[in-house]
Amino acid sequence: MTFDIPLNDTSSAGLGITLKGKTSIVDGQSIDLGIFVKSILTGGAASRDNRLRPNDQILVINDSSLINISNLEAATILHEAVRR
Asked: Does a structural domain hold residue 55?
């Protein structure tokens, strides 16, 4: 599923989610699995929208794919999106 969650009047509060990067160890090497919703903050756009859930994976933000990139690269994209 794809959710477009507008910030509307909550731009100062942002989307209102906390995120976590998941990793796995395969053959002794750490493999990044993606960026996931850790929690939904009350009062933010995501809370009011009510479709995101903890452990949902964030796949795209502002037309930038977070698939098959490192968690560090994904974090950079997320930080840039917040600055817009």
From this structure: yes
